[in-house]
Structures are given as structure tokens and as C-alpha cells.
Amino acid sequence: MTFWRKLVPHPWLSLFLFGVWQLLMNDLSPATLAAGALLALGIPFLTRRFWPDPPRLQKPFVALKLLWRVIGDIIAANWQVALLILGPVKKLRPAFVCYPLALTDPFAISVLASIISLTPGTVTADVSPDHQTLLIHVLDVADERELISTIRTRYEQPLLEVFPCSKTSS
Amino acid sequence: MLENVILISLGIMSAAAILNTLRLLAGPDLPDRILALDTLYINAIALIILLGLYLASDLFFEAALLLAVMGFVGTVAVAKHLMRGDIIE
Amino acid sequence: MDISFWVDAVVAALILTGSLFALIGSIGLWKLPDFFMRLHGPTKATTLGVGSLVIGSLVYFSSRGEGLSLHELLITLFLFITAPVSAHLLAKAAMHQRVGRIEKTKGRIWPQ
Q: Does A145 reside within a domain?
């Protein structure tokens, strides 16, 4: 186990690199597959010192469900944002909202920040230095508490399940 | 049918690029201009892809991918420069 | 003949919606009053627009090239990963530069 752990320090990164390589080469010949496998194993192994703490992904099904939900939300949110942009500017109610984080894992926080930037009319502007609050700019908000609770139940709860190491330390 | 749709899309994307250029010239602040440049980059990707569709050639893919990478790196470098006055820490 | 007509229709729909979304993003960039509001247009509408345009191109080349051609997916993936990052960095730079906001913006930013 530890031997494999040393040889393949970041299985998810390896899988991702392999997928990207196949997409880039755009064919499935044995030579491409072999080169992809070599790179997917070699790059994480040679650069392992730069990734000291691999994020541990658990419950991949929850992650897939979250991914599916996020894709749906991106499309839905874009209709909203398009209507907001095309509508009258005076009706918009922009605001900065502070979002108290329950996640502690840095990778999980950056995933959440990316999801927030891509979905409803919100952009993550900053993370506090102690990694406990996100500063979010909202294009049009009626009730800030509702926004915070939506983000918490829709995106942060699944992320807490996917990255369980952050649950114990918080 | 498809050719006409591609031409219409090329027109729409050009209009978008003109709006970005106006914002690039108008400013008023440096971050606005960088944002306009970033959007121009992404629109250029769309224009290249549309051109590839119009000419039915797969060769434009590499150019679009390179443009995506370069645009991102450029935006990050300039934004970092605004924040720290320094790109490499 | 029938199938190729439907493929063409799907490609046309994807391309048209994609370019319209990109146009909406640029309209937002042009007409919204302050920097932080302008940030919303390009990060969301333009990213989704170009993403769907690229997927239209994927469908087109898969339907008439030799076999499946998925590498356009890479551009979409890359755009969706990088858009939040550049938006975040630009917002940080703007706060550092103390770019003005319109007055009715609620809440406040913390000192940089």
C-alpha cells in the first residue's frame, strides 16, 4: 500500500492528466495510450514535492452529483444574469456579502469559490487571510441571508462530504 | 443553412468584440481595461473556432487552445502586477 | 440526409446561443456602471457562450470527420477552470487599487 502510495502519489491528478492527454491527442492508438500513461505517472511522481498535501476525494458519487448540479445551475444562472444585464440598470441591487466558511481544506475552499463565481449572479472577490470568510460580490440580491443559506445547502454541504478531512478539523 | 448561421454568429461576435474594444478605450480604471482585454481574448477564441467551422478545417483548434492558455497567463500576470507591483515573488 | 439535417440544426442552435451569450457578456461589460458589476458579464455569460460555441464545433467535426473528435472539450474545460481564477485576481487587483463602486452597493470590503 505504502509502496503504491509512493509510486502514485496523486491518483486523481494522474487520472486527470491521462484524460487531458487523450483529449489533446484526439486518438486512442496504443502508442498514445502508452505515452499518456507514462506522463500521467511520471509528472506527479517527479513534481511530488510541489503537492505536499493531496486533497483526498471521498464519495465520488456525491462529487459527480455535485458536478451535474453545478452544470445545470451554470446554465440556469446564465439566463438570470442575461436578463439582469439586459434589464434596466437602476433595478439592480449590488452588494458585498461576507460568507462564513465551514470548509477548512484549502483545495475545497478554492473549489467552492470557483463554483460561486460560475453560478448565480455572484463573484468571489477575496478570501480572508485566516481562510474563514469569503467576500462575495452579488449583482442583484434581495435577501443576503437567503443567499448564504442557499450556497451552504446547495454547494458547501456536498463539498463537506466529498472532502471529509476538512470536517474533522473544523 | 449552416453557413448563413455561421456568418450571422461571426457578425454577433464581431459586435461583442467592438463593445469590448470600446470598454478597453473608455477605461476608466486599469482593472476595467484588463477585464476588457481578457474578454477580447475569449471572443477571439470564439472567432477562431467560427472561422474553423466556416472553412471546415480542424487545424484551427491548436490556435484556439494556445490563445486560451496565453490569455489566461497574460491576465494573471497583469493582475498580479497591479496587486504587488511585481509578477514573480 | 435526414440525420445530417438534424446535426446541422443542433450545431446551428449551439453556435447561435453561444454567440448571443457572448454578446450579452460584452453588453454587460459595456453598460453596467461599476467595475465589480462589470465583472459578472465576462465571467459568466462569455464563458458559457464560448463554451457552447466550442461544443457546437465539436458536434460538427464529430459528425463529418473520421470518428469522434473530442479535443474541443479541452478548450471548454480550460475556460471553465480559468474564468473564476482570473475574475478573482481582477477583483483583488481592483480592491487593491480602490476602484470606485456605485453608491447603492451594500456591504463593504475589508481593508487590503
A: yes
Residue contact A117–C41, C-beta within 8 A = no
- Tell me if chain C has a CB within 8 Å of the CB of B2: yes
Q: Is C63 near chain A, with CB under 8 Å? A: no
Please tell me the distance from the alpha carbon of residue A164 to that of residue B15, in angstroms, as a whole number.
47
| Pair (A98, A146) in one structural domain | yes
Boundaries of every domain in chain B: 2-84
Question: A6 lies in a domain?
Answer: yes
Q: Residue C94 and residue B23: Cβ atoms within 8 Å?
A: no
- B82 contacts in chain C (CB < 8 Å): 93, 96-97
Q: What is the ipTM of this complex?
A: 0.84
For residue C68, the chain B residues in CB contact (below 8 A) are: none
The answer to whether A130 touches A62, Cβ cutoff 8 Å, is no
Same domain, A145 and A66: yes
- Looking at the fold, whether A82 and A160 belong to one and the same domain comes out as yes
- The predicted-structure confidence for B8-63, as pLDDT tens digits, reads as follows 999 999 999 999 999 889 878 888 888 898 899 999 999 998 998 888 887 888 88
A137 vs C24: CB contact, 8 Å cut-off?
Answer: no
A42 plus A78 within the same structural domain: no
Q: C37: nearest CA in chain B?
A: B32
What residue numbers bound the domain in which A46 lies?
A: 2-50
| Domain membership flag for residue A39 | yes
DSSP letter for each residue of chain A: -HHHHHHSS-HHHHHHHHHHHHHHH----HHHHHHHHHHHHHHHHHTGGG--S------HHHHHHHHHHHHHHHHHHHHHHHHHHHS-GGG---EEEEEE-----HHHHHHHHHHHHHSTTEEEEEE-TTSSEEEEEESS-S-HHHHHHHHIIIIIHHHHHHSTHHHHH-
> Which amino acid type is present at position A91?
K
Taking only the tens place, the pLDDT of each residue in C46-66 is 888 888 888 888 888 888 766
Query: For residue A117, which of A97, A136, A142, A104 has the smallest C-alpha distance?
Result: A136
For chain A, how many structural domains are there in total?
2
